[in-house]
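In this section we walk through a basic example: taking a raw amino acid sequence and producing a predicted 3D structure, encoded as discrete structure tokens. The instruction is simple. Fold the sequence below.
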Amino acid sequence: MLTRGDKYANSKDEKVLLGAIEHPEKSGNFEALWFGGEGSLVTIAPPGAGKGQAQIIPNLLTYNGSAIVLDIKRENYDLTHEWRRENVGPIYKFAPFDKDTHHYNPLDFIAHKDHAKIWDDAKLMASMIVVQQANPDFWESRAEDMIAAIIAHVKTHSPAKDQNMNEVLDLLWPTKEGLEVLASEMQSSPIDALRRTGNILPTMPEKQRESIFDSARRYAEIWQSEFVRNITDKTEWLPEDFWKPPWKTLYICIPVGRVRTFASVLRVLIGQHIRGLIASAPSRRERELGNIPNALLLIDEMPQLGYMEPIAESIEVGRSYGLSTWMFAQSMGQIRKAYPDADGLMEMCYAQCFMNPEFDTARRLSDRVGNKKSLIAGKRERVVEPQELMGSEYANTILSFVRGKDPMKLDKVFAYEAAGIRERMAQI
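The resulting token sequence is shown next.
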């Protein structure tokens, strides 16, 4: 699972680079440490700790397999897409503010003829559109149900050319006559949930109905933005494409400070890809015989997206389907705020990395590293104190915990410094 290598730029194997580790026999000499096999990863690092230059960018310049990356600053795309396009395979960029963006229609990802599957996919999409609060209220739950019903209705009733978010938005802002037509059409739907929604719409108290629609419209508001509406009319790729050579890379590019604003769009995009990758994954035997590498999912600032069931699923079962999810967060507190079982989610990750921890995390890490017997005091003492982990001695260090291995002190391999990686970066 862990491999040492002299060269940092080792794209021959489908492994990910954690950092650099001191050579066991040559003091002062460092080797790259690669993590292979199945299992997901997590990195906790505050702003400015270098997680982009030390882990995200180096892996985009070395990993020889399909990858999807949430690119907050867009530097990942700028610095790595040329090398990946020339050496790995086709590049897709979903970037609402760029003229050369690719297009993605989330309703195209609901491609089943089975009505039960259509409803399940519509429910998933609605749950991603609604950025869930820690304690969802009545209106939030009803709004999610209404959005799901309208999405499923559009998929089963509208002409193919109108099966997009524009049609969904139009039905969320209906006229009085339009609402009557919608209810009537739903009443004849082959999907039971839609039929029931159609039955209750005309009899629902007007204030209650408007409150539900108002909540649904609030969550779907960002989809009205021209930056989003103009690039969600068609689809230029599908999740199953990422399992077919040549390996694909999708960059999801959002400017700094816009993650929360576009969270609804990002959640749908990432959630649908996770579910799609799992649903279309080749069997383990097919992956082995066909030398199909894991699909690597790099989710920067993951907690800002809110709780996402597909991400939790990718950590729990993704390894069985060849999906390696690497979560990045600024602190444990962020993850705990978004995920009720944050500690359990962390423990399911095969590799955990920490950079420049704040005091609470440093204290926990110090406890986790354990104690040693002091030759001078004759009693046990911490291997490393929390203050040390926060200080200059560990400023360029990654404290790594890999399942089945002792804790490791790794050096950060900055892309702009590492020979073999630096040469692959685009000059911007």
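Looking at the output, two observations stand out. The radius of gyration is 24 Å. The chain has a mean pLDDT of 92. In the next section we compare this with other chains.
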